[in-house]
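Deliverable D5.2: sample structural annotation.
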Amino acid sequence: MNLEYFIAKRLITAKDYKSSISAPIIKIAISAIAIGMIMMIISVATGIGLQQKIREKISAFNGHIIISNYDNNLSEVTLVPISKKQDFYPKFNSVSGINHIQAIATKAGIIRTDNAFEGIVLKGVGKDYKWNNIKEYLVSGRIPDFSKKLNEEVVISQFLANRLNLKVGDSFNTFFIKEEQNKLPISRRFKITGIFNSGFQEFDATYIIGDIRHLQRINKWNADEVGAFEVFLDNFNDIKVKGEQVYEQTGSTLDTKTIIEKYSYIFEWLQLFDFNIIVILVVMILVATINMVVALLVLILERTQMIGILKALGADNWSVRKIFLYNAFYLIIRGLFWGNLIGISLLLIQQHFGIIKLNPENYYVDQAPVYLNWGYIIALNFLTIGICFLVLLIPSYIITKISPVKAIRFD
């Protein structure tokens, strides 16, 4: 029999335990641990969730790595064509961890309707375009079909559709400026088959997606000439290493840029979330441990006579300390139980119902995303238990200073 555990269990289940002087302090300590765990779980889940969602959104519309001509570096539109006859296309076999590569082209234009006009960039895509990434953001209509003959189907953002008062099934004229001076613009009429809302304002306010063959004709390119290539990776965390490898494997006339480099201001902002999460974890664990230290000290002082009797009967200091550490462990587990239950429940509610909304102009998403992973939840629980136990060893040292004679002396 584990004597220390037996005594600690009897103390916990004793009738006078809930009515003792330490009862309110114990409740505060349990509440502090529960609240701390709730805050830690939510901060990690929403912080990582927001980072992943924004990364997914940017990569869905840009790929992870963009291969283009050096001439296009400072422009959102492709100026000089690239031949599709490349060693890395249609499969990038020389670099591992790449699951897809697609050819695209972009050209600036103006959409003109009866009542409004908007400057846009037409992103031309072909049969190899990865539409699965876009389907998540489609709010109405369907994806265009570019697998057969040239057609006028396009998808447009909800932002542009609202500004131009357009809907699925409507057609509109788009004018593209010719490279030659004093030439009339080229007109193309497109039909909307789908409307998307990415929440990524820079893309929604600018791009429409259509058939790349339109741009090849407008620019007088050959059928095997495109503007750039978008590369998709298996693992976003490898983007820096894979970006360097892709750069080494492309020709000297081509440049590569990762989306981290292209949207550096967004990813620098995302890195601040890591710092915020660490600060929250430190503060919450600090608050929980302080409350547990106070609760343990009160328990020890309340049971001074019992400590004196146990020592008089031959118990050593470590055995007595273990009794109170078992008691503290019980309080920690209770706090963690309620913290996990409430925290995970709140996250599941947010995940399924999206109660907490965000401004997409500031956060690039319209609701707080949630990343639920048992790995980090278990890690947070063990981290809290470990730190609390290490800290509680210090106040439990006061037991070694209690004299049996003074503790059990009758006043």
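Annotation notes: Residues 35 and 244 are 44 Å apart (CA to CA). The first strand starts at residue 65 and ends at 69.
The annotation will be released with the project's public dataset once the embargo ends.
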